[in-house]
Design brief:
With 297 residues, this protein is of the alpha+beta class. The protein has 16 helices and 7 strands.
């Protein structure tokens, strides 16, 4: 099946920007395990997305699912116009135009970003694959094989030691605790989805080992709270070097970013993050000078 008449969308930039850890590129297609099935996605041209699924799904239902998952229902041009406030972020937006912020399944996102703590993307991917291989279910599609992500109940039942055996280290206890609270109903995911940003963030931070950064990742990449600002080492460095010109606390960065970029700060940080990750010269003098060239403010 196809989704046609797409505007302002890049499958490559969206799936390769560090938001999700289950997608693999093979030739010109992306394969990923998403909510129990393998999806194969290809962007034939800027306006057409070709989709194949390992499940026999109704085309209309799958289309609606992907429009939400890939954030294609939002007016990206308006969002990027709102955060395009200086020549530095203008460079990032121009370079990665069409990158969207995903709306991922909540439990897997919680687990993935618990595992992301003090980790790089390659190792996070490997940990998730190991957990899925050991506790998930095997799925195949046209020669591609992978595993579904284990349910919260599955991980709660196997215990901390089994999770630790997958190489998760100290994160095993955090992951087991989250799985247990979800499987026994102490943390209700459906309720969490309907909470305002601050309430959802505070609820997530009640989980053992979940701090502000992980909670904000979950709020942004699963719950659709575009005002969330995950501040990791990269984002802290970007704001200190590009915008503030000094060492700054997380609170200072959050206050500045909210005032400067507004309510779509989640999109702004994703473009800044991916630009810095992809460009080893991102903090060279020629780029630093761009911060003083204002587009709107």
């Amino acid at each position: 099946m196809e989704i046609d008449n797409l505007k302002d969308f890049s499958l490559k930039y969206t799936l390769e920007s560090g938001q999700s850890f289950r997608w693999s590129r093979i030739d010109d297609a992306y394969y990923g395990v998403v909510e129990g099935r393998i999806l194969k996605l290809q962007q034939e041209n800027p306006s057409t997305l070709i989709i194949e699924s390992s499940c026999n799904e109704d085309d209309e239902i799958l289309t609606e699912f992907l429009l939400h998952y890939l954030d294609l229902n939002r007016d990206l041009a308006s969002i990027l116009s709102a955060v395009n406030v200086d020549a530095y972020i203008a460079k990032a937006i121009e370079h990665f135009w069409g990158m969207r912020v995903l709306n991922q399944e909540l439990w897997e996102t919680i687990a993935s970003f618990i595992l992301s703590q003090n980790n790089n993307i390659s190792r996070i991917r490997n940990l998730i694959h190991t957990l899925a291989e050991k506790f998930g279910e095997r799925v195949e599609f046209k020669g591609y094989m992978d595993y579904t992500f284990p349910s919260a109940k599955s991980l709660a039942d196997v215990g901390v030691d089994e999770i630790f055996s997958c190489g998760t280290g100290y994160r095993a206890e955090y992951l087991w605790h989250a799985a247990s609270k979800i499987s026994n109903g102490e943390l209700q995911l459906d309720k969490l989805k309907n909470l305002p940003y601050i309430d959802a963030k505070n609820e997530l931070m009640n989980l053992v080992g979940v701090g502000e950064k992980v909670a904000d990742c979950i709020c942004l990449f699963s719950l659709g709270h575009l005002e969330a600002l995950p501040i990791d080492v990269w984002i802290k460095r970007i704001f200190e070097q590009i915008y503030l010109g000094k060492k700054a606390s997380v609170t200072e960065i959050r206050q500045f970013a909210s005032n400067y970029f507004g309510s779509y700060i989640g999109y702004a940080q994703q473009y800044l993050f991916h630009f810095a990750q992809s460009n080893p010269n991102w903090a060279d003098p020629e780029y630093l000078a761009l911060k003083d060239i204002k587009n709107k403010k």
